[in-house]
Amino acid sequence: MFKRSVLAIVVGLALAGCGQGASPSTSGSSGTAATEVKIGLEAPMTDFAAADGESARTGAQLAIDYVNTEAPLPGINLSLVVEDDQAKADQGPTVAQRLMSQGVAGVVGGSYSGPLRAAAPVYQQGGTPMVVAYAVHPDITKAGDLIYRIWPVADVEGAAVAKYAAEELGLKSVAVLNLDNDFGTSLAAGFTTAFKATGGTVPVAKTGAVGDKDYRAALTEIRAANPDGLFVAAYYTEGAQIAQQAADLGLNVKIIGAGMDSPQFLKLAGAAANGMVYLSTFNPVGEGGLVKWFVERYRAARDLEPDSNSAASFDSVLVLADAIRRAGTSDPAALSKAIKETDLEGVTGHLTFDGNREVQTTVYFHEVNDGAIKTVGEVEIGG
To answer: What is the radius of gyration, based on Cα positions, of the chain?
Structure first.
């Protein structure tokens, strides 16, 4: 099935011609003329979030390679244009302008909520569709009808964690510890509202800034509240520190994380991650041929296991390519309409969008056991 889908993508891209985001180039050993269609990637390639940016870049490039090689046709070539926003909000609009100036047909938002929240109105005003890979803040897609997201929005993701905590883990009292930024506060709010709706309580809620290294005061207060569990909305560096310090303080509760699906988290947290559960949009042991293709090539490219950020970036490219195929053009209005009608099998699962351009798919819960990852649950989103 997946080869037939990619064949349709490539055929459609050939029909797209040299509209916006396309230019003549050469491709293949014969040197025959080809149509180049540029896909942009906004990601944090330097600074504190560089590991997530590299994950996004690898996933997006693998999707480009997949479309270009699995069903090769003369006259078509996708290429990836990468710009670094350093995961900083003030860099989002600048990066958006740089990508659009290079004539990209569409953009993969492979960065965090802060920069993409700032960049989304620029893409909207510039007439360039963006598919957000993993940023969660609700305001990003509210920028306009050219902005889509293939990761659950914060309130939906938070509700998925609450559902799993209440129904699968049987937790009645869960403390919250989150980063005090767009990502962390929106996720904490989504979880808190949904968990209380199940009849659960949130006895204490604490925050920390990106870059903080000491969470002992917050964790000590959480331990004193004696909850059943702890929900942590943090990136891999802060998440690893929280896991280690919770273990040092003897905080013996079930920890559920969001934002930590990264090999770096497991490396930094070490044994302190044992028993922890974290949310992901990617199940690497899926049986589909596309998942196998992606996992094998990601391992070969980086000597690492793929994470949900890389998988979501891969699928974001597929969404854009599939939309160009069905639209027969890269005109923004036609492309946006085609993205809205997405009905596609990706590596993260079956992808469709609701009326607010938010994804309908499945999220997974992975548990860490002595460094090994086991999928222990899943929750359907939308549908």
So the answer is: 21
CA atoms within 13 A on the CB side of 165: 38
Distance CA 283, CA 256 (A): 17
Kindly report the number of other CB atoms within 10 A of residue 33's CB atom: 12
19 pLDDT band, cuts 50/70/90, is: very low
Return d(Cα 220, Cα 63) in angstroms, integer. 45
DSSP state of 167: I
55 phi and psi angles, rounded to 5 deg: -60, -45
Element (H, E) at 284: none
Instruction: Write phi, then psi, for 307 (nearest 5 degrees).
Output: -120, -175
Q: Which domains does the chain have, with CATH numbers?
A: 2-152+284-361 (3.40.50.2300), 154-280 (3.40.50.2300)
- Residue 72 pLDDT more than 50? no
Four-CA torsion 270, 276, 282, 285, nearest 10 degrees: 80
Residue 328 tokens, joined: 């027969």
DSSP one-letter code for 253: S
3-state secondary structure of 190: helix
The DSSP line for 236-252 is: HHHHHHHHHHHHHTT--
Spatial separation of the C-alpha atoms in residues 53 and 62, rounded to whole Å: 14
What the block records as the tokens of 321 is: 């390519």
Indicate if the alpha-carbon torsion angle 315, 364, 359, 155 is positive or negative: negative
The terminus-to-terminus CA distance of the chain in angstroms comes to: 22
As a whole number of angstroms, the distance between CA 81 and CA 251 comes to: 45
Of 115, 131, 124, which Cα lies nearest the Cα of 182? 115
Rounded CA separation 67/77 (Å): 9
Model confidence band, residue 5 (pLDDT cutoffs 50, 70, 90): very low
* DSSP string over 74-119: TTEEEEEEEEE-TT-GGGHHHHHHHHHHTT-SEEEE-S-HHHHHHH
**Using CA atoms, how far apart are residues 182 and 11, in angstroms rounded to an integer?**
40
Nearest alpha carbon to residue 130 among 356, 282, 332: 332
Kindly report the number of other CB atoms within 10 A of residue 217's CB atom: 11
pLDDT of residue 7: 33
